[in-house]
Design a protein that fits this description.
The chain is of the alpha/beta class. The protein has two domains: 6-234, Phosphoenolpyruvate-binding domains (TIM Barrel), CATH 3.20.20.60; 236-265, no CATH class. The protein is 42% helix and 14% strand. Strands 1-2-3-4-5-6-7-8 form an eight-stranded parallel β-barrel, surrounded by seven helices. The protein is globular and about 70 Å long. The model has no long low-confidence stretch (mean pLDDT 98). The structure holds 3-methyl-2-oxobutanoic acid and sodium ion. Sodium ion (NA) is lined by residues 44-46, 57, 84, 143.
Length: 265
């Protein structure tokens, strides 16, 4: 099947077609999502939370992200693969952003990178885009700034709506091909989606955005932590896996596994 490319996401917006994005951090899960038709896979720095249980996204490194990214690239033959630039790998200067972005495309094979930040990060986006690195912006609630923002909270309420719009506009003007809107009021997201030429991707941002994204362990019920309000749980993988491994353990302890047919003559 044909690879999803950034131009297709732009076409989706122009023809009023929506698209789906899910996080992925390993090759097998990436393969399952790819075969199911998920258009975009995000190697999110949420790997710090869901793969490593580190509490926030801040500590994950470029080298750690590269391992997850390579794995997802190897597992996906159709989806567009986007990787998050981790905290501390792009903020200092446009040159630092280009250097990190180049590492992602060169060493992991992802097709694009995503970067958190307001309008002040536009020079980073511009520099990466001119170096040939497709960039997704990420505005609204940005988890890497959790401490600066005073915790997990909806952004863009009331007066602050104009700021979210300005930040998203700055990303578009700097050359981003899409922007993630995280935890902003649905009406604000709708306004941003219609003000921008490029497609926006929502998470806790209502249904007016062209794309939607969720963390897969949240939406498939593997994560036993506290889930945000915007998550819809489509399966109970934790329950499925837990009961399967309990059966395995019971069989091992009782001697029922392995049975004669699992052994060699
Ligand atoms: O890291 C991540 O998973 C993300 C998405 C939730 C947008 O940035
Ligand atoms: Na992220």
């Amino acid at each position: 099947p044909k690879r999803v490319r950034t131009v297709h996401l732009q076409q989706f917006k122009e023809t009023g077609q929506k698209f789906s994005m899910l996080t992925a951090y390993d090759a097998m899960i990436a393969g399952v999502f790819d075969e199911a038709g998920i258009e975009v896979l995000l190697v999110g720095d949420s790997a710090a939370n869901v793969m490593m249980r580190r509490g926030t996204t801040l500590p994950i490194t470029v080298d750690e992200m590269l391992v997850f990214s390579k794995s997802v690239v190897n597992g996906a033959s159709r989806a567009l693969v986007v990787a998050d630039l981790p905290f501390g790998s792009y903020e200092a200067s446009p040159a630092q952003a280009v250097e990190t972005g180049v590492r992602f495309l060169k060493e992991s094979g992802v097709h694009a990178v995503k970067m958190e930040g307001d309008a002040t990060m536009a020079p980073q986006v511009r520099a990466m885009v001119s170096a040939g690195i497709p960039v997704v912006g990420h505005v609204g609630f940005t988890p890497q700034s959790e401490h600066a923002m005073g915790g997990y909270r909806v952004q863009g309420r009331g007066e602050a709506a104009a700021q979210v719009l300005a930040d998203a506009r700055a990303m578009e003007e700097a050359g981003a091909f899409s922007v993630v809107l995280e935890m902003v009021p649905s009406e604000v997201a709708a306004e941003v989606e219609s003000a921008l030429r490029i497609p926006t991707i929502g998470i806790g941002a209502g249904n007016a955005t062209t794309g939607q994204v969720l963390v897969w362990q949240d939406m498939l019920g593997l994560n036993n932590g506290r889930l945000p309000k915007f998550v819809k749980q489509y399966a109970d993988l934790r329950g499925v896996i837990s009961s399967a491994v309990s059966s395995y353990r019971r069989d091992v302890l009782s001697g029922e596994f392995p049975a004669p047919e699992h052994g060699f003559e």
